[in-house]
C-alpha cells in the first residue's frame, strides 16, 4: 500500500540522538489526528528502538540507524528502525520482558514497551546482519472510529 | 543539570527535570546515588513533576535507586508522575517496590 506521506532519515548511533529521533518521528506523526497519549506512545516506542540500536547493535562503534515512517489512509503510522549492527541471535528471548543481555540499570523492557505502546511490532534480525524493527500505531481518533 | 537534590535530616528529595532516556539517565543516577550514599536517608523522594518524557530508562533508574536505598534500610517514594510516565512505570510494576504519591487519575475512576 502506498503511503499518504513518508520520510526517511539516517542518524549516527550516538545517545544524544535518542531525543532527536523521537522528536522527528513525533513531529511527522502529528500530521495525523492523533491525541496526546498516542503521540507519547510513539515517542516512547521510538526511543526504545533507537536506544536498542545504540546500546546493543553498535556497542563499541558508531554506526548508522535508518529510520523511515509513513502514514497510511490517514490513521495508520508505520515506523521502521533498522541498523546494520551485530544482530540478535535469539529474537524470542530478547523480546521477553525483563530479559537484558546487559546489566546495570537496563530494565530489559525495551521490546515490552514497544509492544504495549504500539498496535503491531515485528522484529527481524540475524547475527552479523543487523536488526529491523517495524511498529504500527493505529490512530483511534479517525473519523467514524470509536476506541 | 537535570536533577536537583535537596536533603533534610533523614530524607533526600530528588527533583528530576527534562527527558529521562538512556542519554540523560546516567547523570541523574550519579547525582542521586551520591546524595543517598552521603545521607543514608530513611526516605528517598523522587519527584517527576518536571519530567517531560520517560522511556524504560526511567524504570531502570527507579529500580536501581530502590536497590540502593533498600540496602540501607530506607524507603523509596515516587511523586507526581505524568500520565505518560505512569503508563511506562506500570509496565514494570513499580508500585510494588515504591510508594507512589499523586499519581494521575484516570477518567471517572480513582486508582
What does this structure look like?
The complex is a heterodimer of chains A (147) and B (111). Chain A has helices at residues 17-29, 36-57, 91-94, 110-117, and strands at residues 5-12, 64-72, 76-83, 120-126, 130-138. With 147 residues, chain A is of the alpha+beta class. Chain A has a single domain, classed as 2-Layer Sandwich (Heat Shock Protein 90), CATH 3.30.565.10. In chain A, strands 1-2-3-5-4 form a five-stranded antiparallel sheet, with helices on one face. In chain A, helix 1 packs antiparallel against helix 2 (36-57) and helix 2 (36-57) packs antiparallel against helix 4. The mean pLDDT of chain A is 93. By secondary structure, chain B is of the alpha/beta class. Chain B contains three helices and five strands. Chain B is globular, with a radius of gyration of 13 Å. The N and C termini of chain B lie far apart (33 Å). The chains are: A alpha+beta (147), B alpha/beta (111). The A-B interface holds A 15-16, 18-19, 22, 37, 40, 43-44, 47-48, 51, 54-55, 104-107, 109-110, 112-113, 116-117 and B 19, 21-23, 25, 29, 53-57, 59-61, 63-64, 83-84, 87-88, 91-92.
- Main sheet specs of chain B: 5 strands, mixed
Class per helix and strand makeup of chain B: alpha/beta
| Content of β-strand of chain A | 25-35%
- Average pLDDT, all residues of chain B: 91
Radius of gyration of chain B: 13 Å
Listing every helix as H and every strand as E from the N terminus to the C terminus, the arrangement of chain A reads: EHHEEHHEE
How far apart, in Å, are the first and last alpha carbons of chain B?
Answer: 33 Å
Number of domains of chain B: 1
Detail the poorly predicted runs of chain A: none
Describe the main β-sheet of chain A briefly: 5 strands, antiparallel
> What CATH architecture of chain A do you see?
2-Layer Sandwich
Which geometry of chain B do the CA atoms define? globular
Q: What share of residues of chain A is helical? A: 25-40%
Biggest sheet strand order of chain B reads: 1-2-3-4-5
CATH topology of chain B: Transcription Regulator spoIIAA
CATH architecture of chain B: 2-Layer Sandwich
Kindly report the oligomeric state of this protein: heterodimer
Amino acid at each position: 500500500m502506498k503511503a499518504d506521506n513518508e520520510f526517511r532519515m539516517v542518524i549516527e548511533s550516538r545517545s544524544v540522538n535518542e531525543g532527536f529521533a523521537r522528536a522527528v518521528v513525533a513531529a511527522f506523526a502529528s500530521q495525523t489526528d492523533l491525541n496526546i497519549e498516542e503521540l507519547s506512545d510513539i515517542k516512547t516506542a521510538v526511543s526504545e528502538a533507537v536506544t536498542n540500536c545504540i546500546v546493543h547493535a553498535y556497542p563499541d562503534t558508531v554506526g548508522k540507524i535508518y529510520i523511515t515512517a509513513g502514514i497510511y489512509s490517514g490513521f495508520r503510522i508505520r515506523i521502521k528502525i533498522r541498523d546494520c549492527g551485530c544482530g540478535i541471535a535469539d529474537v524470542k528471548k530478547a523480546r521477553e520482558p525483563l530479559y537484558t543481555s546487559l546489566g546495570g540499570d537496563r530494565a530489559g523492557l525495551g521490546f515490552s514497551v514497544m509492544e504495549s505502546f504500539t498496535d503491531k511490532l515485528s522484529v527481524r534480525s540475524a547475527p552479523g546482519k543487523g536488526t529491523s524493527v517495524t511498529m504500527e500505531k493505529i490512530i483511534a481518533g479517525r473519523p467514524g472510529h470509536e476506541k | 543539570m537535570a536533577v536537583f537534590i535537596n536533603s533534610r535530616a533523614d530524607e533526600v528529595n530528588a527533583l528530576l527535570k527534562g527527558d529521562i532516556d538512556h542519554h540523560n539517565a546516567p547523570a541523574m543516577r550519579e547525582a542521586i546515588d551520591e546524595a543517598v550514599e552521603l545521607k543514608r536517608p530513611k526516605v528517598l523522594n523522587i519527584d517527576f513533576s518536571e519530567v517531560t518524557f520517560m522511556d524504560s530508562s526511567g524504570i531502570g533508574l527507579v529500580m536501581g535507586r530502590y536497590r540502593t536505598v533498600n540496602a540501607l534500610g530506607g524507603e523509596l517514594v515516587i511523586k507526581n508522575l505524568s500520565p505518560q510516565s505512569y503508563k511506562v512505570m506500570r509496565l514494570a510494576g513499580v508500585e510494588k517496590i515504591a510508594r507512589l504519591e499523586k499519581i494521575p487519575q484516570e477518567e471517572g475512576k480513582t486508582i
